[in-house]
Amino acid sequence: MVSLSVEPATILLYGANRQQQLLITGRQADGRLVDVTHTAQIAVRDSAVVRMNGSVLVPLANGQTELQIDAGGATARAPVRVEHLEESPPVHFA
């Protein structure tokens, strides 16, 4: 891998009933894109704020942290912010 991209690039978990699935894509030297979501190593800098459930982020406390993602020799980082964990905003299917 020559690079990794994380989607979403910036993660905001707003409310207790929110979780976020990550998509991690690796770019190989020949330009091909490969989904490495389920094989990447994901480390949470502050495990008191969020935890990983596979490739899904689950909020634990209001605050900020960062993810470090490693796959195939490439690394990426993604900021994470958790807000209003004491609330459960309604879910809309627009």
Structural class by helix and strand composition: mainly beta
Number of strands: 10
Give the helix level as a range of percent: under 10%
Termini Cα gap: 37 Å
Molecular shape: elongated
Helix count, DSSP H or I runs of 4 or more residues: 0
Topology as a string of helices (H) and strands (E): EEEEEEEEEE
The main sheet orders its strands as 2-10-9-6
| Strand portion | over 45%
Stretches where pLDDT is under 50 for at least 5 consecutive residues are: none
Notes on the structure:
The chain is 0% helix and 53% strand. The chain is built from no helices and 10 strands. The strands form 3 sheets. It has a 4-stranded mixed sheet, with no helix packed on it. A hairpin with a 2-residue loop joins strand 7 (50-53) and strand 8. It is elongated, with a radius of gyration of 14 Å. The chain starts with a strand and ends in an 11-residue tail after the last strand. 19% of the residues are buried.
